[in-house]
Amino acid sequence: xxxxxxxxxxxxxxxxxxxxxxxxxxxxxxxxxxxxxxxxxxxxxxxxxxxxxxxxxxxxxxxxxxxxxxxxxxxxxxxxxxxxxxxxxxxxxxxxxxxxxxxxxxxxxxxxxxxxxxxxxxxxxxxxxxxxxxxxxxxxxxxxxxxxxxxxxxxxxxxxxxxxxxxxxxxxxxxxxxxxxxxxxxxxxxxxxxxxxxxxxxxxx
Length: 205
Fold this sequence. Notes:
The protein is α+β, with helices and mostly antiparallel strands and 205 residues long. The chain has helices at 9-18, 22-31, 36-60, 71-76, 83-86, 91-94, 96-108, 110-135; strands spanning 146-150, 166-175, 180-184, 195-196, 200-202. Strands 4-3-2-1-5 form a five-stranded antiparallel β-sheet, with no helix packed on it. The longest helix has 26 residues, at 110-135.
């Protein structure tokens, strides 16, 4: 039923509050709003707050692909009991004394758990690096080669979608063994800093 159908604003507020979730109802009623506008503003504010807390809880209790652990477990040494699980009968919610002893034990082992997660994360990053390196075709250049430079690496000149992707040409003036190069313009003016070969492309006249 639409609140606008009530002539008395107090009845409108009561009917509006009844249609809210229980947790929101209690807070809105406790604030004793004097108008529909204030009641609606309070409800929207509380719902946004709860939504934000739910997102934060989801982030803290979701295992990360890189290490297989949740942020919560790495801090406290154990997994969190979700609000929906608290109402269910389980050993963690019923046997509080044993659960407290286990929590202290998990805290003692938390450092070992973090170290294991760190090792798994390093291994995961290495596997990503190997996968990336297999797909990347590295370009090698020699002194005197003409190249174009990736425009997005030059923040001053880069114009995102409206600008050209490559600019130049430039000439390779020095080549280093680590895949970096020194550039100069076709007129012989040196370009500051070194440039990674990934950001260069061979240019043909």
